Amino acid sequence: MANTERWEFLVDACAERLRKEHGFSDEEVKRTREDKKEGAKCMATQVSRQGSTLVHRVIFTTQSLATVAGRPENKMDEKRGSQNNPLEFLNIWPKELDQDYNGEAWRELHDLYARVCENGGNVPPIQVLAMCCGEGHPFWALVDAYPLTQNDNFYIVHTLQVFNEPVPKVVHGQSLCEANREACKGLMGMLRAEIQAVNKASNDPNADTTVGAMFQAASSKMTEWAADACLGDHFLPKLGEKNANKLGSQWKDALKKIGSDFMHFLEISNNKLEQLLEGKDTTLAWCLVDPTDKDGPLVYASPHWETITGCNASWAIGRSWRCIHLRNNESNNQYNGEELERIKKFFNQSRPAPIMTILRQESNDRKYWNILVIRQVRMSGVDCVMMFSFPCENGQKDCFTLALGDHWSEDVGQKISNFRDRLRLGESKMNANTPISDLISGNIFLEWLSEVKDDIEEGWEGENFCPQVGASSAKEFLGRWPSLLTVVGDQLTNLWQLKRDAIASLKSNTNDTFACSVCDPLEVDCPLVFVNKAFEEKTGY
């Protein structure tokens, strides 16, 4: 029998399944049988066993599958695929990534092929979720494998349903970071568990479960996380909601367990503890993390934590604590890599002692320096982690910004390591009477500052510290002075009784009477982004 004839037989044999389970109309089944581009995305293979090896022979591949695989002009022939996986042409690269994301799906399919050969084809179909590659980019697909038998020959009709939701770039490609990889593996596992649950329920004759229903349910999940799971270079799907519901409600117990010594260190008075427990305190930023999950999802976040990080608790709960990292992965590794490794070891080793660390974080895309204090606490049999966040004071923050600059260099890295070494030394000398303010505002910072003073001396004007922290804002404002005057021209005319020629001279910066400056109120310390000629002459700057 020719492959085309065999394909027509296979489509006819599985037509009822295509109609019932996939929701295909008679016309769609017909288009699939005739191999029209609008037909189903299918591949039919013949499977047999040669000794201990399973061998696949591709019988037919529809045009629609060839198109989504990126090969519309060169349809797959009998040599496509491998002996173990006839769908190998859909694998993502590199191979290690495909094994991470799809290894379980390919193993389920391989087990199906083996059972078909062992049981004479009397095997129920299965569905697996896979991240596939085609047309130069990955896509999500639900693969339905339907076994059929004819004349003692065993066939598998594979039908793909492709999700419309895109696969974010942060979970594939050469620049994929380990954390995003783990997050994606967790998401795949969660969705596969749901599909398996529906598969199990489908054995119940009274259950209304179809491939289409599973596809719809999984698609809804995809839509849910795809819309807001990416934060810069970080992939943060909500994978920890289950434990968040269980542990998050016990955040008050976590506060009560931190101990009197640690309360003194954090400068939490009994009155402040009461305010914290009542949810009225707006000064202490802290969160509760479940370290039993590799991605460390948050199970609770305080109101002030939301304020300083710019992340709503409703969004962050169930997502990795990495949501507070620098959005750019390269910068994050440069500035924070050393400390992130320490935190990872803390999670893995469950060290009981607090860790003092300094991180450069972001709030609404603005950077700030921050002391992070970590404490372990046991909750419902789980060793949870409490993270207390203490942003540096404005004066310190300005010094950091000026001394370290806006761009990474080996010199910047050395200065940061120097400060962290001093911080750890201070940590080792702590005792029960040491408050955190001594660590943040005491000699450690001043000693470090004295070492880098050559880089910040120009920031002092008398007794006022005026670091150049708004250089990027000034660069962004460059050339906008005339257009700003156009917007406020009428107001200036009415306020100062200016004539048109005066406005024109201000725009061209030739006016020597009115000293004008422009500030950026959104930046720390409200830096000047423009001064005119008269301002320079009258102030001497």
Distance between the termini: 91 Å
Measured as a percent range, the helix fraction is: 40-55%
| Sheet with most strands: strand arrangement | 2-1-5-4-3
Q: What's the number of extended β-strand segments?
A: 16
What does this entry look like structurally?
- By secondary structure, the protein is of the alpha+beta class.
- Helix content is 44%, strand content 21%.
- The protein is built from 21 helices and 16 strands.
- The chain has helices at residues 3-20, 26-33, 63-68, 95-118, 178-201, 211-226, 241-247, 251-256, 260-265, 270-277, 303-309, 313-316, 329-349, 394-404, 410-428, 436-441, 443-451, 471-477, 481-496, 500-507, 533-539, and strands spanning 41-50, 53-61, 126-134, 137-150, 153-166, 230-231, 234-235, 285-289, 298-301, 355-363, 366-379, 382-391, 460-461, 464-465, 517-519, 528-531.
- Strands 2-1-5-4-3 form a five-stranded antiparallel β-sheet, with helices on both faces.
- Strand 6 and strand 7 (234-235) form a beta hairpin.
- Helix 1 (3-20) packs antiparallel against helix 2.
Write the layout of secondary structure elements.
Elements: H1 3-20, H2 26-33, E1 41-50, E2 53-61, H3 63-68, H4 95-118, E3 126-134, E4 137-150, E5 153-166, H5 178-201, H6 211-226, E6 230-231, E7 234-235, H7 241-247, H8 251-256, H9 260-265, H10 270-277, E8 285-289, E9 298-301, H11 303-309, H12 313-316, H13 329-349, E10 355-363, E11 366-379, E12 382-391, H14 394-404, H15 410-428, H16 436-441, H17 443-451, E13 460-461, E14 464-465, H18 471-477, H19 481-496, H20 500-507, E15 517-519, E16 528-531, H21 533-539
Antiparallel strand pairs: 1-2, 1-5, 3-4, 4-5, 6-7, 8-9, 8-12, 10-11, 11-12, 13-14, 15-16
